[in-house]
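wait is this the right file?? whatever heres the structure
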């Protein structure tokens, strides 16, 4: 399968995406734990059905030492016992932040309160930005039908 668009072939789109990708790299330096970042990126991508991002974040998490059991259970995190309470709170916020059209109130107060119990303000800011960033990245890839499977860990660093 070939992508519908090569965003970097167009100078204007390439310039925008260069800045967008640098924002993603800056998130890696945020105070939100790296494992949480990868789990959240993976879960948002699963919800949206973004194969290229699922490929990327599964491989990045594996390269960083994440266990196959945890990666395989991200889609069913509510029933899994392998996640910390902080990770569970982040995954819950990520789901509600991704499925905003499914709820009139978006992210609920209880979800926010649980996330705030486990994350300081800097981590919460990074989490919200990461969820928003991943939703945008997912849409860019899905609309252009970016193919998945060939990602190599560290490819965009």
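ok assuming it is, sequence goes like this
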């Amino acid at each position: 399968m070939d992508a519908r668009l090569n965003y970097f072939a167009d100078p204007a789109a390439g310039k925008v995406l260069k800045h967008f990708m640098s924002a993603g790299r800056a998130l890696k330096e945020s105070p939100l734990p790296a494992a949480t970042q990868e789990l959240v990126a993976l879960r948002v991508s699963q919800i949206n059905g973004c194969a290229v991002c699922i490929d990327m974040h599964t491989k990045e998490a594996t390269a960083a030492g994440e266990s196959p059991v945890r990666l395989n259970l991200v889609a069913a995190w509510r029933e899994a016992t392998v996640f910390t309470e902080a990770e569970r709170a982040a995954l819950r916020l990520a789901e509600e932040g991704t499925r905003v059209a499914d709820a009139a109130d978006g992210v609920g107060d209880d979800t926010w309160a649980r996330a705030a119990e486990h994350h300081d303000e800097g981590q919460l800011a990074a989490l919200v930005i990461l969820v928003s960033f991943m939703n945008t990245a997912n849409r860019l890839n899905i609309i252009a039908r970016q193919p998945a499977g060939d990602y190599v860990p560290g490819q965009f660093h």
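Helices lie at 11-28, 34-48, 51-63, 68-73, 85-98, 109-118, 121-143. so i think its the right one actually
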